[in-house]
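Example record for the data management plan.
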Amino acid sequence: MMSPLVSPQWLMQQSNNPQLVVLDASIDFQIPGEVEKDRVNLIPGARRFDYDTVFCDPESQLPHMMPSEARFNQLARQLGLNSDSLIVVYDNSGTFASPRAWWMLKAMGHKQVYVLDGGLTEWKKQGLELNQSYVENKLAGNFSGKLDPNYFVDAKYVLANIDNQASLTVDARGRARFDGKVKEPRVGVRSGHIPNSVCLPFAELVDGHKFKPNQELERVLSSTLSNQAQQTIFSCGSGVTACIVLLAAHICGYQNLVVYDGSWTEWGASLDLPIS
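Corresponding structural encoding:
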């Protein structure tokens, strides 16, 4: 089975494939540790996949929550996505924001979706061609995904599984935030972590702008994740870096992986939810 991570060379080889769609899934938020964002250059042929303000739930007070199946399908068709599209997602500072876009498309049942390892940073490092404008799609696509409810879960679900020995909640934030030793960046959000959760900072899985080699990923993951857990729930600040850790786990063969979409932004702000 092909890895979800692809290289700039692989993407170049697919450049004449009529089914290829390249999506820029960059976000404005500066993720701790990511390299400086390039807000000017784009990979040729890229279309904008904005999950901060477009591919999200407009009714939610929480940032970039997964939209409804109907909304996602409508927006995907407007973007020109087809059911047989070969989709490669990337972001403008490495492999930071793109894993969430990959997971969102997987949640909609799309099989042919990949992440450009190293993103725009690696593309430029290879000296490849750049553009400064997105492709304007003129034809509507026929994308018709079915949202699998097992890909994203809510606070109620996480709370119900706190004491479940078969379920493990993994927090992708840094250890200082997990331990409640530093103030949370968002106003009104408490410090600490979900009871019985474990900390696996996403930064331990990346080397600069790219993922570490598979052998290194396996070593880091095996020290925290449990092979006994029938399900692993990934959380972080707002559901973005959780997908970095989830992608690493997926690459290493872990199964039954889900994302707590509201993550600490929701949990830390709700006085009804317990913290440790």
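Summary line stored alongside the record: The mean pLDDT is 95.
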